[in-house]
Design goal:
Blueprint lengths: L7 H26 L3 H28 L2 E3 L5 E2 L2 E2 H18 L5 H16 L7 E3 L3 H25 L3 H28 L10 H27 L26 H17 L2 H29 L3 H8 L15 E5 L4 H6 L6 E5 L5 E3 L7 E2 H9 L4 H23 L9
Parallel strand pairs: 5-6
Antiparallel strand pairs: 1-4, 2-3, 5-7, 7-8
């Protein structure tokens, strides 16, 4: 272990160097190498993911006592804001642009072993290492830095769309549930302390938050599966998605964020977090409507106007609007499911043997088995849609990750 005894002014200079150095590195590399448009978008995604996850993981590290930071200036939740941003730049677009074709684990492993293992615990008063600090460093790299570089690579190469959407969802969740509320609490007063809240209020809030998360994640999933793209306009969908949660509300992710801030603000007793929901409304009125007018309307001139006229932006419909009738092939033994689906909208049930099969002429992918039955349930009403989309998040997620596993030699026959 290297022992450093730098005076405080040098530590302050180091802190600023950890912010300005990575920014300068990225600017120089982009200037010299002139990466492609998709590579630049990947670098931006890596930075945003990094900001979100560096903040979350370092906040967890401080809470667990793995390390703490010194000084009081530019601090948020005990974290130096400049180090959060600098770390997100360095371990996201910085390392990606410097080593675009190298596996992220090979980039980060020497840094973890060679740099952090030698000087991390010797950087007081910048950072004071506690017990198990090295395990914390590994945790941060595994959950924040390495995925950020993978996100940049996969975006630039247009590969692994489901994994990219998962990482973008994690990024968005960190922004919504951690960074923005923390900024508001820091600026307007308040804390994350919930020790005096009743079990009933905490349970109710958790249930409501789970519902809002399902709305946001199911929208992300449908854009990935049926839209063949991500929720971010810089990496857009290739098709107009009108099924699932999008049959009930046209801005489900903005609705999810607004509801999350209302529920978080209520349980924390902070009116300013509740009012942050207005920011989501302003965002929809401005940026989202501009995007709809200048992107979706041009790319989908036939489908978008009809969809916009029938599906509201904020208040979900109780029953779905579906312009095309889907077909569910179901075995005769599923009597209860048939009875439940008897009042479904735009769904034709046919009798057939074997696994259930769901197909919609409006979408590029059909579903088999449990996923087919769950998609059919989204045709009933908004409540059943939430239940079905929760199941689809699990079922389709398991199916995708199983598809990534190496196939056994004996399975190919």
């Amino acid at each position: 272990m290297i022992s450093l005894s730098l005076p405080e002014p040098f530590m302050l200079a180091l802190r600023w160097g950890l912010l300005l150095g990575p920014i300068a590195l990225v600017l120089v590399i982009v200037r010299l190498r002139n990466p492609s448009q998709r590579a630049r978008i990947g670098g931006l995604f890596a930075f945003l993911y990094g900001v979100s996850m560096v903040f979350v993981t370092h906040s967890l590290a401080i809470w667990l006592g793995w390390w703490t930071y010194g000084w009081e200036s530019l601090m948020l939740n005990g974290l130096p804001a400049d180090i959060v941003i600098g770390g997100a730049v360095l371990f996201g677009p910085g390392l990606y642009f410097a080593f675009p074709d190298t596996r992220p684990i090979m980039i980060c492993l020497p840094i973890v072993i060679g740099l952090h293992a030698t000087i991390f615990s010797s950087l007081e008063p910048l950072v004071s290492a506690g017990p198990y600090w090295f395990a914390g460093v590994v945790f941060v790299f595994v959950t924040a830095h390495i995925p950020a570089i993978y996100l940049a690579q996969w975006t630039a190469e247009d590969r692994f769309l489901p994994l990219r959407c998962i990482l973008l969802a994690i990024m968005t969740g960190g922004m919504i549930f951690a960074i923005l509320p923390s900024l508001i609490l820091h600026a307007m007063g308040g804390s994350w302390d919930l020790s005096d809240r009743s079990v009933l209020s905490l349970t109710l809030t958790a249930v409501l938050l789970c519902g809002t998360i399902v709305i946001g994640l199911s929208a992300n999933q449908m854009l990935c599966i049926q839209g063949a793209g991500t929720p971010i306009p810089l990496d857009p969908t290739q098709r107009l998605v009108r099924t699932g949660v999008y049959a009930y509300v046209s801005n489900p992710m903005q609705l999810s964020a607004a509801l999350a801030w209302v529920f978080l603000g209520t349980i924390l007793g902070n009116i300013w977090i509740i009012l942050a929901a207005l920011m989501a409304w302003v965002f929809v009125q401005g940026m989202v409507r501009w995007h709809h007018r200048h992107d979706l309307l041009k790319r989908f001139p036939e489908g978008w106007p009809e969809y916009k006229a029938n599906v509201p932006e904020w208040m979900p419909r109780w029953q779905p609007w579906l312009p095309d009738t889907a077909v569910l092939v179901l075995a005769p033994r599923h009597r209860r499911l048939r009875a439940l689906l008897s009042h479904a909208t735009a769904l034709e049930i046919r009798t057939g043997e074997g696994r259930a099969r769901y197909d919609s002429p409006a979408e590029i992918r059909g579903f088999d088995g449990a996923a087919a039955c769950l998609m059919a349930l989204t045709h009933i009403n908004f409540a059943w849609m939430l239940v079905a989309q929760t199941g689809l998040l699990l079922v389709l997620g398991v199916q995708y990750f199983r598809s990534l596993l190496p196939k056994r030699a004996g399975a190919v026959a």
